[in-house]
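Write out the 3D structure for:
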Amino acid sequence: MTQSASRVKFNIRGRIFETFASTLKAVSDSKLGRLTPEHESYDGNNQEYFFDRDPDLFNVILNLLVTGNLHVPRQVCGALLREELSFWEIGNGNVSKCCWRQYFQHEDDMSVLKDLIDNEDSNSAWIEGETLKERIWLVLNSPGSSKFAKTWYILYLCVVFISIVVFCIWNIEGLRTELYVSDFITHHYPDIHLSGNDKLTTLILTDPVPALFALETGCLVFFMVEWVLGLAVCPRKRDYLTSWTHVVSFVLVFAMLMNFLMEFFKSVLAENEVARWLYFIFKAISMVRLLLFIRVARRFSALRVLLLAIKNSLLELLLMAITFCLGMVFFATLIFYAEITNVESFSNIFISMWWAIITMTTVGYGDIHPSSVAGYIVGVFCALSGLLLLAMPVAIIASNFSEYYSQNNFYQRYLRLQKENRNKETCEMNKIHPHKEAKFDGLSWPAD
């Protein structure tokens, strides 16, 4: 073949392709457009260019040069096609509209997979526990690292559950008794007795039964020791202090500690209203113990997938909030003027906003309702608009969850396959070297 020949022959892994030389010049700055007989891939005996590339993808490249549009076969991975385009030095800006989904799908898949991998166990800095600090860290943060870590994990969940139950029954009158933690004469504070607020009287002028107080104190000590111990053995102190789960744990320990100390100074709470409000605020903050259940995500991947789906749907949630607020103001204004003659309800726009929120979310308390024909019409459109505004973002979030869930299933199957392969390799090594030490689950002991 000479350089002036009208046709050019290619041998791609044994498959022969022929095309016009002018076709190769369609993208003159590509590797194909610069081919000459002096190129190292040229076989003078057979008068052809040989490349060890995928012949199916090369056919796609030739179709791109002929038609000017890149069409992606359904059986081809988008990442592999990008590598092929990069090899031939051809840009990827000519993807046909009908193939956008096929071409860009792998980007979405890789983004989801990256999130799953990054959130698999972000707190584990060591793969294997060699020192005491490393083993303690794995026990505290990697439930799958050993049987002892699983035991600690179950104990942690049990303590969190007990703590939540204690918090919920703390104010039940039947579980309260006379003051014994802080001893002062309660009848010296008649303003509390005469306030008519039974909740205030129960919290300030009585103490929980000793068993309940002991459980709350035990939970406080447990959470405090767990947080301090985790900080002591953590390999990256800064990451530990900025991790939101550990920040929540710190806030919980601080709030519980403040409540614990205030229980010994009920006389101050009875005298000082500011102190009482601080006590109530710390009591409310300590409910963040519910968030400690998020640690379940480290063991159950389905919950982790749900959290990731919500995290990646924040833009849609923000859009929903903005459109909901616009609809709320719109229908609040309409109902206010539609019920302008109603002197018993809809006294101002803010009350009308309350009605719009309750109607758009289909809760319908019934405390405020229209009474005119115009008000009824506004109410109907308000309810229908609320359904539409809330339904569309929910569908997007459900789609994101489905994508993460399916990718997570594939990822977990891949991890199981890797684990099986490692176990086979370990068994083979034990057969070859039966007296060497075997390592499992981050701990080591002599092999049998």
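The chain has a mean pLDDT of 82.
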